[in-house]
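Run: sequence + guanosine-5'-triphosphate -> complex structure.
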Amino acid sequence: MKLAMVGFGQAGGKIVDRFLEYDDRTNSGIVRAAIAVNSAKADLIGLDNIPQENRVLIGQARVKGHGVGADNELGAEVAEEDIDEVQNAIDQIPTHEVDAFLIVAGMGGGTGSGGAPVLAKHLKRIYTIPVYGLGVLPGTDEGGIYTLNAARSFQTFVREVDNLLVFDNDSWRQTGESMEGGYDQINEEIVRRFGILFGAGEVGEGQEVAESIVDSSEIINTLSGGGVSTVGYASEEVELNTGGGLLSRFTGDGDGDDGLDAANTTNRITSLVRKAALGRLTLPCEIEGTERALLVLAGPSEYLNRKGIERGRKWLEEETGSMEVRGGDFPREEPEVAAAILLSGVTNVPRIKRLQQVAIEAQDNIDDIQQESEENLEELVEDDEDELEPLF
Ligand SMILES: Nc1nc2c(ncn2[C@@H]2O[C@H](COP(=O)(O)OP(=O)(O)OP(=O)(O)O)[C@@H](O)[C@H]2O)c(=O)[nH]1
Ligand SMILES: [Mg+2]
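>> structure
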């Protein structure tokens, strides 16, 4: 499907920048337009692929291009004040050619975590196409302010978007890696997983049309109903059939599958589906209780078959307990078969429960502080009244 991507804040901008590079590299045609929004000028300059005219600096009057320093209330304020600047950039893209918006942001900082929900609300008021979020949760070792920002922003973001796809840095960080090197790998993982999902259904001219191809509407239907989504992924290298060579030896019982053993193909697919669902998810959770799911099988068409996908789909129905599991092919000439699984409307997510707890505790603290200051105020007023009484 074709997306208009908006990267909000540093992480958001870098990930959208990376999506553009992925799009070029794999010819997947999912990024119809890419915009970066930030309150920090240096972050915008540091991007490689997003066109200059699509880089929007907000909050200049308030923070002079220096960022909001992890203050997400300030992030939300500057986004609201300068929303017209963002809209001007969006006005330049052909939104009639776009299936959905995808707003990408790190939830731990100030600009993206404060601004992304503001933009989502704005876009939903104006456009009829879906507005999705891709929210990146901070590592738990980043410190309290990042967790608190994420706890607050998450609740608002999930409410404003049609679906919030989540990637949790905490489950993906690698020990012994520099921050930047680590993010590089993490960002590659993000674009690979979400790239396959959104790339399904974007079969270019001259490409083979599969037996049961995934369509954009199936992605949209899986995401509809809202909530939080996570993505599982697994892949296996295969040899491309270049006519003859090694593959011609796998004649097996044929079944019209270009000389590949149909049973092998089916087994490979079913085990990839299990690996993808039970392996590391972008947001780790219990898959049982998932409301809707979509299984995408990507690879050379001779390695895809209906039976394998059907089995994988059934297995996912059993594991999730969902009655709404879609599945299909994404034929592409890469030397690997990959299963990507979108689990939409997940309910049993330990990380989110912890974040909600943090948000509630923070709210209690705020209430305490407010109550305290109200009491102080009352005392002051009472004192004043006491003092004033004699005068009347
Ligand atoms: N996956 C990923 N996460 C990142 C990357 N850079 C930063 N993050 C995460 O995103 C969070 C927010 O950081 P930024 O995106 O720099 O924050 P910002 O939105 O620019 O906000 P301010 O810098 O406070 O103005 C951090 O706490 C990290 O968890 C990245 O390249 N990839
Ligand atoms: Mg920043």
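>> summary
Residues 244-257, 385-392 have pLDDT under 50 and may be disordered. The pocket of magnesium ion (ligand 2) is lined by residues 9-10, 40, 43, 67, 109, 111 (CB under 6 Å).
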